[in-house]
Structure formats: C-alpha cells, structure tokens
Design a protein that fits this description.
Number of helices: 16
Structural class: mainly alpha
Largest sheet: 3 strands, mixed
Number of strands: 8
Shape: elongated
C-alpha cells in the first residue's frame, strides 16, 4: 500500500483541495510560503517507512473514515498491484467524487504532525541551566564518573546541567568543534565559545502529543529513547554558534550507520546534495564522517550521541524541509518577536497559539 499512497499523494491536482485563507502574523508582510498537505504526508510516509513506523497505516485509516465508500475502496486497493498513480486514484475513488469528500480526518492528521512534530523539532526549548553561575572551566577538569553523577543529581533542568554536559562532551569528543575544526574556549583563549546542542530539542520534554507523534512516526523504541536520553550526554554535542543555528534551522543533520561492527556518523545536508557548500564556517561536505568519540573518554561515553536520536532528527528535518513546512515555521519564528529581534527560543505554548490547524483544511497554507 506504500506505492499506492505515495503515487496518489503525488497527484496534488487530483485532490482538489482549495487554497486556505492567507495568514497574517505580527502585522508584517513577508515572503509567501506554501505547504501542500499531500506533500507533507508524502514525506512523512517515506521517512516513517524507514523506521518501520505507522504513518502509512495511520494515513489509510484516516482516509477510510472520510466516508464508507472510500473505506470499501481502500480494501479493494489492497488487492491491486501497483500500476500507475492514475489507476490507484481511480480505484480509490470508484463511485465517489473527490470534490464531495470531506477530507477533514486526513487534514487533521497532517495538522497534528505539523504542530506536534514539526514545530517541536524546530523549537530548541529552554537551555539546561540557563541561569547557572558556574562556568565550564570549573568542571572541565573533573573526573568523568563525578560529572556523570552530578548530571544525574541535577535532574532534567538543574542550574549546572548545561555546563556539566558541555564538560562531558569535551571528554567524549575533544576540545574543538567537530564541524569547523576550531578549538573551544577555555582550552584556547583565542578560540570560540561552545554552544551545547541537543540532537533532539529538549522542548519535547513533557509534551505527550509530541511523544505520541514520535511513536507513530518512528516506533515506540524511538519514543522511549527520546524520553530516556533527552537531557543527557547521549543527546548532546558541543559546536560553534553558527553551526548550532544552522542545525536548528534544519540546514543539516547527522546520519548514524553501523559499519564493520561500529557506529559511524556522517554529515548530511538537507536535502542531500554533495555539490552545495555547508552553511557558515562548517568545513564538512555532505557525506563526510563526523569524528565523534575522539576525546580522552570517548569509549566510556559511548563514542558519540545515540544513533537512533540522530537518525530521528534527520528524518524529521527532511520531512519539514522537503515539504516546505520548515519555511513556514521559520517565518513564524521571525514574526513572533514583537520587538523585531530574533530569539532562538520561543515558548512552545506561544507557537501553538499561533498555529491555526485549520490552515491545513484545504491542503496548503500560505503565510504572507
């Protein structure tokens, strides 16, 4: 049923979903961005299938609730070998006019993934230990076991958590940015300040709807990994500030693959293109290996972030970028700040207030 679903969703013009109203944010005029719901669902299914997720089954289930004839036709489609998109479409809508079908269950499904998966993954969330008076240099030389113990004692968002995780990341990966090769302060006074990046943004903490979407998208094991490792060394890395910003803009991601009995990590542009230069001061090209685990305690700290978390973030990033949803979210982030200054963190609740799920009820959203 995957080929049927993808072929049908590629036929955007056949769905006859009207344009939504234009969305005005913060009283400002900006570029127009469009997200076609079929395109969002298409890439959700593609990436979910790679994880053995359930988005494909969810799509057919929601489509079958639109009316009884569609539900009957879906059962018939299961018996049909894939021939062409047109043939799949004809079987699906046999005896039913798409213009008269209320696709609200499917569109609500798309809106849920957009809001609870897309927005959450582009909102870094609060920093661990934002108000901490402690510096990294005070803990960088402490023993690894002591640091791990202190991380556990700090809980999810203790005042020293960020500095402790930065120190552990130094011990795992070394004293320089793995993306740019530049040495960090405090190991080189002429170096750069490290930014602690979460592979999966910690804004998903305590968000049951987001965790539900993760489970549907990538499986229960991926959801459990997120819950278990969200704010520990397996979900963080130190990087240069510009690399950190481009990561949360979904310009690039990390692919983890097992090769020769060990995990290797690869830099991936989004979308993949070996001919495009990486953003900012990043020296890696698409497909280059990221040298995690070369620090003095690399082995003890698992040689790198948890592979499943890297691949989950990359998959979600690809969905948002390839569908155009990332552009809408970035536009809203820029418009959300009334004083005109961009801020990396915007509260999840504030985002959700801005996200009118009804803008999916016709298939695409336009932000003006």
């Amino acid at each position: 049923m995957e080929r049927h679903a993808l072929a049908i969703l590629e036929q955007n013009d056949l769905w006859n979903w009207r344009d939504t109203r234009r969305i005005q944010t913060s009283g400002k005029q900006g570029d127009k961005f469009q997200v076609a719901t079929p395109k969002l669902l298409y890439f959700l299914i593609v990436e979910s299938q790679g994880f053995g997720g359930e988005v494909l089954d969810h799509f057919w289930k929601q489509l079958g609730t639109c009316n009884e004839k569609l539900k009957e036709n879906i059962e018939s489609l299961k018996q049909e070998d894939f021939v062409s998109a047109q043939k799949s479409f004809e079987v699906l809508f046999r005896g039913s006019d798409p213009k008269n079908v209320n696709f609200k269950p499917v569109l609500d499904m798309a809106a849920d993934y957009f809001t609870h998966l897309g927005v959450a993954f582009m909102n870094p969330g609060r920093k661990s230990g934002t108000s901490t008076p402690f510096s990294v240099s005070e803990v960088a030389n402490e023993e690894t076991e002591k640091l791990l113990q202190q991380v556990n004692e700090e809980g999810d968002f203790g005042k020293r958590k960020q500095e402790l995780l930065k120190a552990l990341s130094f011990k795992r990966d070394g004293n320089f940015c793995l993306l740019t090769g530049t040495e960090f302060v405090p190991f080189n006074n002429a170096g750069i300040y490290p930014a602690l990046a979460h592979i999966i943004p910690n804004s998903v903490h305590g968000k049951p709807d987001t965790l539900k979407c993760i489970a549907m998208f990538a499986g229960a094991a991926a959801r459990d990994d997120v819950v278990r490792h969200l704010n520990n060394i397996d979900n963080v890395m130190n990087m240069q500030l510009d690399a950190h910003a481009s990561y949360h803009h979904l310009d690039w991601g990390i692919e983890a693959k097992e090769e020769g009995g060990e995990v290797k990590y690869f830099f991936r542009m989004i979308p993949t293109n070996p001919n495009i230069r990486a953003p900012g001061f990043i020296t890696l090209k698409d497909g280059d290996e990221i040298q995690f685990g070369k620090g003095p305690e690399g082995k003890k700290l698992h040689d790198g972030p948890l592979p499943n978390l890297c691949n989950l973030q990359l998959a979600v990033a690809r969905v948002l970028r390839m569908s155009g949803a990332a552009d809408i979210i970035l536009e809203w982030k820029d418009h959300a700040d009334d004083d005109g200054c961009y801020r990396l963190f915007i509260a999840s609740e504030e985002f959700c207030d801005m996200l009118d799920a009804k803008l999916f009820l016709s298939g695409r959203a336009v932000v003006a």
